[in-house]
Specification:
Length: about 450
Amino acid sequence: TAAEQTVSAKLNKSANAFAEAKCYIPGGVNSPVRSFRGVGGTPPFIARAAGNRLFDIDGNEYIDYVLSWGPMILGHSHPEVNRALLAAVERGVSYGAPTLLETELAKLVNRLVPSMELVRMVNSGTEATMSALRLARAYTKRNKIVKFVGCYHGHHDSLLVKAGSGVATFGLPDSPGVPDSIASTTITVAFNHFEQLQEVFARQGEDIAAVIIEPVPGNMGMVLPQPGYLQQVRELTARYGALLIFDEVMSGFRVALGGAQALFNIQPDLTCLGKVIGGGLPVGAYGGRREIMEQISPAGPVYQAGTLSGNPLAMTAGITTLRIIAEDPDFYPTLANKTESLTTGIRDQAEKAGFNLQCHHLGAMFGLFFSDQPVIDYDSAKLSDSTAFNIFFHSMLEQGIYLAPSQFEAGFMSAAHSEADIQQTIAASAKAFAKLAD
Ligand code: PLP
C-alpha cells in the first residue's frame, strides 16, 4: 500500500525546514509537543491532509491518529465542511458583530450537551478554562481552585500547575513566570483518589470556588475514571457549594456525542469545550447553568471578550461538523468499535512479542502505556517505559503510522479510518514490537 511504500522515505526536507523554523520561531514550533523533543528526531512538516492521511513535504504519507490533537473527528478535508467553509469565505471572514451562526452553534451545543444552558464562544480551550475559572471565582466569591495532577487545561497561570501534556512530556516543573501568589490558589490532588479530595475539602472547603477536572483525562496519556469516582466528586462539590467544572475540551463530542457527562450521567455546573467544536478551526466554548452564566458580561459583571470570538468561519466549521456527527445514530458506536479493534489488535501483538501494554479506550479516544501496572493516575502513568515507547513510536512513524509523539498524550480515531487502515496499523505494530524485542 501507499503507506508501506514510504518505509524507506527520508525526512530531509523536513529536517531543513525544522532548522530554518528554529531561526524564527522558539524551538521551531508554535506548540511544544510538535517539536518531537520527547521522542527525538525530526517532526515531519506537513504539506496537506485528506481523510485519515497526512502528507509531508518529503512526499511521505501517514495514517494519522493525532488528528490535529483531537478536532478532526470526521477526518481531514471533509468535503461537506470544506464546501461550507469556502462558501463562508465568500461572505467575508470576520465582522465583529452578531451573526445567526453563533446562535445556531450555541443551540446545537445546548441540544447535545444540555447542562450548557448558556454558551459563550472563545478561540481556544485555554481561553475556555481561564474564563470558566474567573466566572467560578466571581460567582462563589471564593478564590481557591482544585485541579488534578497530570490534568492539562491550557497554559494560563492558574492551571499551569502540575499539568500534563507537554509539561509532562518534557518533565518540566511548573512553568517559570507563573507568580507564586497565583499558583498558591491552585490546590492539586491525585486523580482517582477520592480520599485526597475529601481531605482538601475538609480543611478548606469554604474557600474553594471550583474543582476543574478532565472527566476522562487525556493529558497524562489516557486514563479512565474509576467506577463511581466522578459521582463522588459531583456530590462533594455540591455539598460545599463549590462549582464542578468539566473540562471536556478533549472528551467533548469524542468519548460520546454528549461528552463524558452524558456517558457517566453527571451534571457539571460549567463545561469547557474546544477541539471538535471548531471542526479544525480555532474555537473553544464554555457554558453551564443559566444563573451562573448570566454573570458574564454584558449580561452580568464578569468581564470576558474576544475580537475574533464567534468568528463566522470557525462557527461554520463547528456547525457543519456537529450536524454531521449528530445526525447518524451509528456514528459513535462505529467509531468506538474501530477504536476497540485497534487497541485490542495492538495489545495482542504486544503480548505475542512479550510486552505488557496497558491499553485504554473510550469512544474515539485511546491510550497506550508501556507498563505492567494498571495506570489510574499521573504517578502510575509515569512508571511506564518511555525508552520502549520511543523505539515503538519511531518504528511506527517509519512505517507510515503517525501517533502522538509522547506516551502522555491520547490517540484519536476518525470516521475516515477504514478497517483496512486499522489492520495495516496493527500489522505495523507487530513489526515495531519485533524491533523492540531485538
Ligand atoms: N483542556 C484540555 C482537556 C485539553 O486537552 C487542552 C488541549 O489539549 C486544553 C484544555 C487547551 O486547549 P487549547 O490547546 O485549545 O488552548
